[in-house]
Design a protein that fits this description.
Blueprint (H helix, E strand, L loop, with lengths): L7 H4 L2 H23 L22 H26 L7 H32 L4 H11 L5 H10 L12 H31 L9 H6 L2 H12 L9 H21 L16 H29 L17
Helix pairs in contact: 2-10, 2-11, 3-4, 3-9, 4-7, 5-6, 7-9, 7-10, 7-11
Keywords: Membrane, Transmembrane, Transmembrane helix
Protein name: Transmembrane protein
Length: 317
Protein backbone atom coordinates (compact mmCIF):
# COMPACT_ATOMS: atom_id res chain seq x y z
CA UNK A 1 0.00 0.00 0.00
CA UNK A 2 1.65 3.23 -1.11
CA UNK A 3 0.94 6.89 -0.42
CA UNK A 4 -0.27 7.38 -3.98
CA UNK A 5 -2.87 4.62 -3.81
CA UNK A 6 -3.01 0.88 -3.32
CA UNK A 7 -0.17 -1.15 -4.78
CA UNK A 8 -0.29 -3.95 -7.32
CA UNK A 9 -0.40 -6.64 -4.63
CA UNK A 10 -3.65 -5.20 -3.36
CA UNK A 11 -5.35 -5.47 -6.76
CA UNK A 12 -4.13 -9.00 -7.40
CA UNK A 13 -5.96 -10.46 -4.41
CA UNK A 14 -8.51 -13.14 -5.31
CA UNK A 15 -11.43 -11.25 -3.78
CA UNK A 16 -10.75 -8.28 -6.04
CA UNK A 17 -11.32 -10.41 -9.12
CA UNK A 18 -14.49 -11.89 -7.65
CA UNK A 19 -15.84 -8.44 -6.73
CA UNK A 20 -15.00 -7.17 -10.21
CA UNK A 21 -17.02 -10.01 -11.72
CA UNK A 22 -19.93 -9.34 -9.33
CA UNK A 23 -20.45 -5.74 -10.44
CA UNK A 24 -19.25 -6.06 -14.03
CA UNK A 25 -21.72 -8.81 -14.93
CA UNK A 26 -24.91 -6.78 -14.19
CA UNK A 27 -23.23 -3.75 -15.76
CA UNK A 28 -22.63 -5.55 -19.04
CA UNK A 29 -26.16 -6.98 -18.99
CA UNK A 30 -27.60 -3.50 -18.42
CA UNK A 31 -25.55 -1.95 -21.22
CA UNK A 32 -26.55 -4.71 -23.60
CA UNK A 33 -30.18 -4.31 -22.59
CA UNK A 34 -30.07 -0.56 -23.21
CA UNK A 35 -28.44 -1.00 -26.62
CA UNK A 36 -30.57 -3.85 -27.92
CA UNK A 37 -33.93 -3.17 -26.30
CA UNK A 38 -36.31 -0.27 -26.34
CA UNK A 39 -36.35 0.88 -22.72
CA UNK A 40 -39.64 2.70 -23.21
CA UNK A 41 -42.35 0.02 -23.40
CA UNK A 42 -44.90 2.83 -23.31
CA UNK A 43 -45.07 5.87 -25.56
CA UNK A 44 -43.67 8.80 -23.61
CA UNK A 45 -45.57 11.90 -24.67
CA UNK A 46 -44.32 15.41 -24.11
CA UNK A 47 -47.20 16.23 -21.78
CA UNK A 48 -46.21 13.42 -19.41
CA UNK A 49 -43.23 15.55 -18.41
CA UNK A 50 -45.02 18.64 -17.14
CA UNK A 51 -48.78 18.05 -16.72
CA UNK A 52 -49.68 16.91 -13.16
CA UNK A 53 -51.44 13.65 -12.43
CA UNK A 54 -54.26 15.37 -10.53
CA UNK A 55 -57.33 16.71 -12.28
CA UNK A 56 -57.60 20.13 -10.60
CA UNK A 57 -53.89 20.87 -10.23
CA UNK A 58 -52.68 23.41 -12.78
CA UNK A 59 -49.26 22.69 -14.38
CA UNK A 60 -47.87 25.91 -12.94
CA UNK A 61 -48.03 24.39 -9.44
CA UNK A 62 -45.80 21.54 -10.54
CA UNK A 63 -43.47 24.12 -12.08
CA UNK A 64 -43.34 26.14 -8.85
CA UNK A 65 -42.65 22.99 -6.82
CA UNK A 66 -39.79 21.94 -9.08
CA UNK A 67 -38.27 25.41 -8.85
CA UNK A 68 -38.52 25.25 -5.05
CA UNK A 69 -36.96 21.78 -4.93
CA UNK A 70 -34.13 22.76 -7.28
CA UNK A 71 -33.28 25.93 -5.34
CA UNK A 72 -33.47 24.15 -1.97
CA UNK A 73 -31.27 21.25 -3.04
CA UNK A 74 -28.77 23.54 -4.76
CA UNK A 75 -28.46 25.60 -1.58
CA UNK A 76 -28.00 22.49 0.57
CA UNK A 77 -25.34 21.22 -1.81
CA UNK A 78 -23.60 24.58 -1.62
CA UNK A 79 -23.62 24.50 2.19
CA UNK A 80 -22.29 20.95 2.22
CA UNK A 81 -19.35 21.75 -0.03
CA UNK A 82 -18.70 24.99 1.86
CA UNK A 83 -18.53 23.26 5.26
CA UNK A 84 -17.07 19.87 4.39
CA UNK A 85 -15.06 20.60 1.27
CA UNK A 86 -15.05 19.04 -2.19
CA UNK A 87 -14.06 15.63 -0.83
CA UNK A 88 -17.78 15.02 -0.12
CA UNK A 89 -18.12 14.05 -3.77
CA UNK A 90 -16.27 10.83 -3.00
CA UNK A 91 -19.53 9.68 -1.39
CA UNK A 92 -22.45 8.06 -3.19
CA UNK A 93 -24.81 10.33 -1.26
CA UNK A 94 -23.51 13.46 -2.97
CA UNK A 95 -23.53 11.75 -6.35
CA UNK A 96 -27.20 10.93 -5.90
CA UNK A 97 -27.98 14.35 -4.42
CA UNK A 98 -26.45 16.03 -7.47
CA UNK A 99 -28.39 13.72 -9.80
CA UNK A 100 -31.70 14.57 -8.11
CA UNK A 101 -30.80 18.26 -8.34
CA UNK A 102 -30.12 17.84 -12.06
CA UNK A 103 -33.50 16.13 -12.42
CA UNK A 104 -35.28 19.10 -10.84
CA UNK A 105 -33.27 21.54 -12.95
CA UNK A 106 -34.27 19.71 -16.13
CA UNK A 107 -37.83 19.31 -14.86
CA UNK A 108 -38.06 23.03 -14.16
CA UNK A 109 -36.96 23.91 -17.69
CA UNK A 110 -39.34 21.43 -19.32
CA UNK A 111 -42.25 22.44 -17.06
CA UNK A 112 -41.62 26.11 -17.83
CA UNK A 113 -41.57 25.36 -21.55
CA UNK A 114 -44.78 23.33 -21.28
CA UNK A 115 -46.59 26.06 -19.35
CA UNK A 116 -45.41 28.63 -21.88
CA UNK A 117 -46.78 26.50 -24.74
CA UNK A 118 -50.05 26.02 -22.89
CA UNK A 119 -50.41 29.75 -22.27
CA UNK A 120 -49.75 30.50 -25.93
CA UNK A 121 -52.27 27.91 -27.10
CA UNK A 122 -55.01 29.06 -24.73
CA UNK A 123 -54.52 32.70 -25.66
CA UNK A 124 -54.02 32.26 -29.42
CA UNK A 125 -57.03 33.10 -31.65
CA UNK A 126 -58.57 30.54 -33.96
CA UNK A 127 -57.07 30.87 -37.43
CA UNK A 128 -59.45 32.79 -39.72
CA UNK A 129 -59.32 30.11 -42.39
CA UNK A 130 -60.34 27.38 -39.99
CA UNK A 131 -63.04 29.54 -38.40
CA UNK A 132 -64.52 30.32 -41.80
CA UNK A 133 -64.50 26.63 -42.67
CA UNK A 134 -66.53 25.76 -39.59
CA UNK A 135 -68.91 28.66 -40.01
CA UNK A 136 -69.54 27.75 -43.64
CA UNK A 137 -70.03 24.10 -42.80
CA UNK A 138 -72.32 24.56 -39.84
CA UNK A 139 -74.24 27.78 -40.39
CA UNK A 140 -76.82 26.19 -42.67
CA UNK A 141 -77.69 23.23 -40.50
CA UNK A 142 -76.39 23.75 -37.00
CA UNK A 143 -77.24 26.28 -34.32
CA UNK A 144 -74.95 28.85 -32.79
CA UNK A 145 -74.08 26.57 -29.87
CA UNK A 146 -72.66 23.92 -32.20
CA UNK A 147 -70.66 26.54 -34.07
CA UNK A 148 -69.17 27.73 -30.80
CA UNK A 149 -68.39 24.17 -29.79
CA UNK A 150 -66.60 23.60 -33.07
CA UNK A 151 -64.64 26.81 -32.67
CA UNK A 152 -63.62 25.80 -29.19
CA UNK A 153 -62.65 22.32 -30.30
CA UNK A 154 -60.41 23.85 -32.94
CA UNK A 155 -58.15 25.45 -30.41
CA UNK A 156 -54.71 24.17 -31.45
CA UNK A 157 -53.76 21.02 -29.66
CA UNK A 158 -50.10 22.04 -30.11
CA UNK A 159 -47.35 19.59 -29.24
CA UNK A 160 -49.17 18.13 -26.25
CA UNK A 161 -49.62 14.80 -27.93
CA UNK A 162 -46.21 14.58 -29.55
CA UNK A 163 -43.64 12.04 -28.47
CA UNK A 164 -41.02 13.27 -26.03
CA UNK A 165 -37.68 14.15 -27.58
CA UNK A 166 -34.12 13.65 -26.37
CA UNK A 167 -34.39 15.91 -23.32
CA UNK A 168 -37.71 14.42 -22.31
CA UNK A 169 -36.37 10.88 -22.47
CA UNK A 170 -33.25 11.98 -20.60
CA UNK A 171 -35.45 13.43 -17.86
CA UNK A 172 -37.41 10.17 -17.70
CA UNK A 173 -34.22 8.09 -17.38
CA UNK A 174 -32.74 10.37 -14.73
CA UNK A 175 -36.03 10.21 -12.81
CA UNK A 176 -35.99 6.42 -12.69
CA UNK A 177 -32.29 6.36 -11.79
CA UNK A 178 -32.87 8.81 -8.94
CA UNK A 179 -35.75 6.72 -7.64
CA UNK A 180 -33.62 3.68 -6.92
CA UNK A 181 -30.57 5.70 -5.85
CA UNK A 182 -32.34 7.74 -3.16
CA UNK A 183 -33.87 4.63 -1.61
CA UNK A 184 -30.49 2.88 -1.62
CA UNK A 185 -28.73 5.92 -0.17
CA UNK A 186 -31.17 6.55 2.65
CA UNK A 187 -31.66 2.93 3.68
CA UNK A 188 -27.91 2.26 3.77
CA UNK A 189 -27.24 5.44 5.74
CA UNK A 190 -30.05 5.22 8.31
CA UNK A 191 -30.17 1.44 8.56
CA UNK A 192 -26.54 0.36 8.13
CA UNK A 193 -24.02 3.16 8.55
CA UNK A 194 -25.51 5.36 11.27
CA UNK A 195 -26.25 2.61 13.84
CA UNK A 196 -22.70 1.23 13.60
CA UNK A 197 -20.65 4.40 13.10
CA UNK A 198 -18.72 5.32 16.24
CA UNK A 199 -15.97 7.74 17.16
CA UNK A 200 -15.31 11.40 16.59
CA UNK A 201 -14.84 10.97 12.84
CA UNK A 202 -18.60 10.77 12.35
CA UNK A 203 -21.16 13.08 13.88
CA UNK A 204 -24.77 13.32 12.77
CA UNK A 205 -25.55 16.96 12.08
CA UNK A 206 -28.71 18.61 10.85
CA UNK A 207 -27.14 19.15 7.43
CA UNK A 208 -26.06 15.51 7.09
CA UNK A 209 -29.51 14.38 8.20
CA UNK A 210 -31.15 16.59 5.57
CA UNK A 211 -28.80 15.32 2.87
CA UNK A 212 -29.90 11.75 3.62
CA UNK A 213 -33.63 12.40 3.77
CA UNK A 214 -34.75 15.40 1.74
CA UNK A 215 -33.44 13.84 -1.47
CA UNK A 216 -36.08 11.13 -1.14
CA UNK A 217 -38.74 13.48 0.24
CA UNK A 218 -38.46 15.93 -2.66
CA UNK A 219 -38.51 13.14 -5.23
CA UNK A 220 -41.48 11.38 -3.61
CA UNK A 221 -43.52 14.60 -3.63
CA UNK A 222 -42.69 15.08 -7.30
CA UNK A 223 -43.74 11.48 -7.98
CA UNK A 224 -47.05 12.12 -6.24
CA UNK A 225 -47.67 15.12 -8.49
CA UNK A 226 -46.24 14.17 -11.88
CA UNK A 227 -47.52 12.00 -14.74
CA UNK A 228 -44.19 10.35 -15.53
CA UNK A 229 -44.22 6.66 -16.32
CA UNK A 230 -42.30 4.16 -14.20
CA UNK A 231 -41.35 0.58 -15.00
CA UNK A 232 -38.72 -2.08 -14.32
CA UNK A 233 -36.89 -1.04 -17.48
CA UNK A 234 -35.35 1.91 -15.62
CA UNK A 235 -33.49 -0.52 -13.34
CA UNK A 236 -30.80 -0.79 -16.03
CA UNK A 237 -29.92 2.88 -15.65
CA UNK A 238 -29.90 2.57 -11.86
CA UNK A 239 -27.42 -0.32 -12.11
CA UNK A 240 -25.20 1.69 -14.47
CA UNK A 241 -25.26 4.64 -12.09
CA UNK A 242 -24.02 2.54 -9.17
CA UNK A 243 -21.50 0.71 -11.34
CA UNK A 244 -20.09 4.05 -12.49
CA UNK A 245 -19.57 5.02 -8.85
CA UNK A 246 -17.77 1.73 -8.13
CA UNK A 247 -15.48 2.23 -11.13
CA UNK A 248 -14.78 5.79 -9.95
CA UNK A 249 -13.83 4.52 -6.49
CA UNK A 250 -11.56 1.81 -7.87
CA UNK A 251 -9.80 4.22 -10.20
CA UNK A 252 -9.29 6.76 -7.42
CA UNK A 253 -7.87 4.08 -5.11
CA UNK A 254 -5.56 2.85 -7.82
CA UNK A 255 -4.27 6.40 -8.29
CA UNK A 256 -4.29 8.36 -5.06
CA UNK A 257 -6.71 7.26 -2.31
CA UNK A 258 -5.97 4.82 0.50
CA UNK A 259 -9.24 5.10 2.45
CA UNK A 260 -12.74 3.94 1.55
CA UNK A 261 -15.74 6.25 2.06
CA UNK A 262 -17.83 3.17 2.86
CA UNK A 263 -16.33 0.27 4.84
CA UNK A 264 -18.24 -2.35 2.82
CA UNK A 265 -16.32 -1.31 -0.31
CA UNK A 266 -13.02 -2.38 1.24
CA UNK A 267 -11.45 -5.16 -0.84
CA UNK A 268 -8.72 -6.35 1.53
CA UNK A 269 -11.02 -8.73 3.38
CA UNK A 270 -12.32 -12.22 2.55
CA UNK A 271 -15.83 -10.92 3.19
CA UNK A 272 -15.61 -8.39 0.35
CA UNK A 273 -17.33 -10.62 -2.27
CA UNK A 274 -20.30 -11.13 0.06
CA UNK A 275 -20.59 -7.39 0.64
CA UNK A 276 -20.43 -6.61 -3.07
CA UNK A 277 -22.91 -9.35 -3.90
CA UNK A 278 -25.29 -8.09 -1.20
CA UNK A 279 -25.07 -4.52 -2.47
CA UNK A 280 -25.68 -5.62 -6.05
CA UNK A 281 -28.67 -7.71 -5.00
CA UNK A 282 -30.00 -4.88 -2.84
CA UNK A 283 -30.61 -2.78 -5.97
CA UNK A 284 -33.67 -4.92 -6.77
CA UNK A 285 -35.70 -4.18 -3.61
CA UNK A 286 -34.59 -0.53 -3.59
CA UNK A 287 -35.92 0.02 -7.07
CA UNK A 288 -38.92 -2.20 -6.40
CA UNK A 289 -39.95 -0.17 -3.34
CA UNK A 290 -40.18 2.99 -5.38
CA UNK A 291 -41.96 1.18 -8.19
CA UNK A 292 -44.59 -0.05 -5.73
CA UNK A 293 -45.11 3.50 -4.44
CA UNK A 294 -45.75 4.82 -7.95
CA UNK A 295 -47.99 1.88 -8.82
CA UNK A 296 -49.94 2.41 -5.59
CA UNK A 297 -50.68 5.97 -6.62
CA UNK A 298 -51.99 4.81 -9.99
CA UNK A 299 -54.07 1.98 -8.53
CA UNK A 300 -55.55 3.95 -5.64
CA UNK A 301 -56.48 6.96 -7.76
CA UNK A 302 -57.04 5.58 -11.27
CA UNK A 303 -60.03 7.61 -12.41
CA UNK A 304 -61.21 10.03 -9.76
CA UNK A 305 -57.99 12.02 -9.95
CA UNK A 306 -57.00 11.79 -13.58
CA UNK A 307 -54.44 14.04 -15.21
CA UNK A 308 -55.29 17.73 -15.45
CA UNK A 309 -56.53 18.86 -18.84
CA UNK A 310 -57.88 22.20 -19.94
CA UNK A 311 -61.50 21.78 -21.09
CA UNK A 312 -60.67 22.86 -24.64
CA UNK A 313 -57.85 20.36 -25.03
CA UNK A 314 -58.51 16.71 -25.59
CA UNK A 315 -56.00 14.03 -26.36
CA UNK A 316 -55.12 10.55 -25.31
CA UNK A 317 -52.77 10.55 -22.32
Amino acid sequence: MGSGGFGLDYWLQWQVLVCAFIFLLPTIISIRFIITKNLTPYLLHHHHLWIPYWRNLHPTWLLFYRIFAFVSMSYMLYLTVLRLGPFVFFFYTQWTFVLVTVYFALGTIISAHGCWMLFNELSSPIPNQERDKFLKKDSSSVGDSTVKDNEASFKPQMQLNQEAGFWGKLMQNIYQTCAGAVVLTDIVFWGLLLPFQTGDDFKLTLLIGFMHSLNAVFLLIDSALNSLQFSWHGLAYFVLWSATYIVFQWVMHACCLTWWPYPFLELATPWAPLWYFGIALFHLPCYGIYLLIVKAKASMFPRSFIRWLPPILSFKA
